[in-house]
Amino acid sequence: MKNLILTLLIIFSISAFPQAKQITVSVNKNVEFAALRCWLVDFGSSFENGDSTLIWENQKFQLATYNNFKTFIDDDLLENFKKVNQNEGLSSYIWLFAQLEDFPNAQLNDDIPSDDFISYEDDLSIKEKRKITKEVISDLNKFYVKIAFDNFLNKNEHLYKRVISEVENNLPEQRFVTEMQLFYNQYDKKSFILNPSLLIPSGMGFGPNLDNNVYNFFGSFGGVDVEKNITNFSNQSAILTLATHEFGHSFVNHIIDNINQKLIDDSSFLFPPIKLSMENQGYSNWKICLYEHFVRAGEIILASNLGNTEGSKFLFEHHVLKNNFIYIPIILKHLNYYNDNKDKISYHESVEKALIEIKNFR
Q1: How far apart are CA 149 and CA 65, in angstroms?
Q2: What pLDDT was estimated at residue 21?
Q3: Phi-psi region of 6 (alpha: psi -120 to 50; beta: other; left: phi over 0)
Q4: Beta bridge partner(s), residue 192
Q5: Is 266 helix (H, G, I), strand (E, B) or coil?
Q6: Residue 328 host element (H or E)
Q7: 35 contacts: CB under 8 Å, gap ≥ 6
């Protein structure tokens, strides 16, 4: 992704690890543009219809921005996007647009995976999805110019700089990224990028892994209120939780994806007992539930590895007792052994052993 605006690099030098990574804090203008479009064709109407989709009192800045641009809701250049939006959502646009040149010069190049194309229907051919995606991008390049979105970014540059500074001043400790790589024994990630946003709904976050660059796009932690001079991006514990959890998915999900599917299917009977509590947290099937269990187990061990014993204890109680991730104790048994014996067993093998024991849970 070229020409990211307002980029600030925070480089951690850790002599114990020869290829210490850097956490980059930046605002991505393509994602801001994507979020605005979702306010125009989705979130804004939900607010006006009185839906309880979001905590509206935490969306003051976004709603003010929506009101400033709502005269463009019926613009012809949004017609294709509106059709696509019936099948897609903000996460799909973030996955795609974060890989493009900046609007209004975005193009669909051959490096973009077909899985990231957007379309009206899921069962269309790759060729049809590519055609639709190119058409939508072309329209949105023109729409970007028409609404003068650069003027909005320039007008609010002081806010974006402040948001970046707030996140920068509350980043995890220096060893954080290195400890994640050491624990999971994975060193292929090119970069770790935190992307605060003024237009993503407050309370939402998205963590794509694009070409082994690990992103976290997120709205404020309590709403942006310009009149009260509040941006709510300086919550250190929230930033640590975001980084640990969302970055953790980039280490965990592909491991579970490569586990024998029969092992996952044979243990799926364990989902119904926790289904209601999982669905209330947005996790609708057993495989997603497993992602979340293993990521959270990793959080508990990482806190301990970083010397935060109280934090590790808190996370255990929070995840297992409060949020009902009841299979974490079994997972911890195997991951703690792995953590102490990486010369004897791999993370992948430990996940498999944990799943076998979970399968026999009664």
Answers
A1: 11
A2: 72
A3: left
A4: 23, 214
A5: helix
A6: helix 328-340
A7: 62, 90, 197, 199, 200, 201
Question: Which amino acid is it at 211?
Answer: D
pLDDT tens profile 164-189:
999 999 998 878 999 999 999 999 99
Neighbour tally for 250: CB within 10 Å: 23
Predicted pLDDT at 293: 97
CA distances from 169 to 140, 164, 246 (A): 35, 9, 19
Neighbours of 40 (CB within 10 A): 25
Angle value at C-alpha 358, between 263 and 209, nearest 5 degrees: 65
- Distances in Å between the Cα of 299 and the Cα atoms of 142, 161, 183, 268 are 44, 30, 10, 23
The one-letter amino acid code at 109 reads N
Parallel/antiparallel/unpaired status of strands 5-11 and 22-27: antiparallel
Q: How far apart are CA 344 and CA 342, in angstroms?
A: 5
Count of alpha carbons within 13 angstroms of residue 81, beta-carbon side: 30
Cβ-count burial 197-218 (b if 16+ within 10 Å, e if not): bbbbbbeebbbbbbeebbbbbb
What whole-number distance in Å separates Cα of residue 133 and Cα of residue 126? 10
Burial of 194 (0-12, 13-18, 19+ CB in 10 A): buried
pLDDT of residue 284: 87
**Rounded to two decimals, what is the model's pTM?**
0.83
Write down the pLDDT at residue 20: 58
Low-confidence ranges of the chain (pLDDT < 50): 1-18
296-328 burial string, b = 16+ CB within 10 Å, else e?
Answer: bbbbbbbbbbbeeeebbeebbeebbeebbbbbb
The closest alpha carbon to 252, from 322, 302, 323, belongs to 302
